[in-house]
Amino acid sequence: MDRIAITGGAQLNGVIPVSGAKNSAIKLMAASLLTDEPLRLTNMPRLADTRFLGKLLTRLGVSVTESDGPDGQQTILHAPEITSGFAPYDLVRQMRASFNVLGPLVARSGQAKVSLPGGCTIGARPVDLHLQALEALGAKIDLHEGYVYAQAPRGLKGAEISFPIVSVGATEHAMLAAVLADGVTVIKNAACEPELVDLQECLNAMGAKVEGAGTPTVTITGVARLNGATHSVIPDRIEMGTYAVAAAMAGGEVRLTKARPELIESLSVKLEEAGATVVRTEDGVIVKRNGSRLNAVDLETAPFPGFATDLQAQFMALMTTANGESRIRETIFENRFMHAPELMRLGADISVHGGEARVRGVAQLEGAEVMATDLRASVSLVIAGLVARGETVVSRIYHLDRGFERLEEKLGACGAQVRRIKGDGEPEL
Ligand code: EPZ
Questions:
Q1: 414 carries an active-site annotation
Q2: Which domains does the chain possess?
Q3: pLDDT of 290-336, one tens digit each?
Q4: Distance CA 276, CA 284 (A)
Q5: What is the dihedral of CA 393, 395, 400, 406, to 10 degrees?
Q6: C-beta of 416 in contact with ligand 1 (< 6 A)
Q7: Sign (positive/negative) of CA torsion 299, 339, 242, 316?
Q8: What pTM, to 2 d.p., does this model score?
Q9: Are the CB atoms for 123 and 312 separated by under 8 Å?
Q10: Whose CA is closest to atom 19 on ligand 1?
Q11: Best of 47, 102, 125 to mutate for ligand 1, by most ligand atoms within 8 A of CB?
């Protein structure tokens, strides 16, 4: 398997264009199941996760065509009919969000059999709220041998869905199912992440009637059918935030473009508190640090517009060389500190107690061999490697390839010494 080697010490100077958001793209792709007309998604990232979902959608009857269109990378998805309502375990386990095909399948063809996604390195991540939402919409749900059997032969019915906790995936899933339901659905305690607003815009371009995404109450008036549409995927705020942290870590000046500054405001505030300069621009941010050491700052992850859990590992890497002690509280996932022991292999001083990590900044990290455990954890190791003395080699980077498009190229263009070491095809132990 491939690895990434980083030689620390180079500052970052240059421009990084931000790609389309992985976590939006994969839900938008699932929306193609709701119509017999083509859905053209532009600003599409090319990632392992979009490929996984493309493979599953193809099995369900969707033709998935990737190309370079007039406005950049595009994917055209077309499902004239659903040829199968079966999403097998071997495809769903590769990417949890594949589970979100369940709602659109039931909405369009009245039945589906979709594998439960199973465990995950960052926490238990159950799907009870997804199932609760589909049941509220009138689907009959049965669980057998690791599969969800869902049926609504006479179609889904609008309903009130009140989530006990905020869930991005369950809110998206409820929206994807309710657009074709008969009547009005009101989702209460909905997630407010920008990707939900993106989903609303895409569904409305397809002829749906969705209002309120981005607020805790989303109202959907069901329609009988949806049409094809063209939609541009929202910029990836986590990729943007990751490179903003990388610039603050390595020093120099990096301009992030093709994005929106408000998508990472909670991170920008923390970067400024730590001593980096963040200039908000029309299409992104410029992040600068002039060589002086950053100060330790505390943070707590929270649903949007709070500090994103998907940027916690990267910020922890930043704090490993800051001046003082930083307390980092993870409140979204219970097991999301797997990067801490790997950062410690690079010389970081971190202790974890339950949902809180204490990071005492050290003057210098040392390059070492480390292992990626999940997508955001792996990029935190790359960020630490940017300032570690000598070489850092990150293995299991298939995690990175799931969510960061052309990472080596983007960082390399700003002067980072990052190279991919091609593997021999053998799995790593
Ligand atoms: C999405 O996951 C993202 N994934 C995650 O990004 C992100 O970390 C997360 O939202 C939070 O922002 C995608 O969009 C594909 P949740 P999701 O449902 O939807 C609990 C990355 O690195 N919960 O908002 O799965 C759950 O266990 C990934 O790109 C239930 O209890 O997150 C968690 O503690 C990692 N029952 C909390 O809710 C349910 O039915 C929030 O999870 C669903 C969720």
A1: no
A2: 3-19+235-421 (3.65.10.10), 22-232 (3.65.10.10)
A3: 878 999 999 999 999 999 999 999 999 999 999 999 999 999 998 89
A4: 16
A5: 50
A6: no
A7: positive
A8: 0.97
A9: no
A10: 169
A11: 125
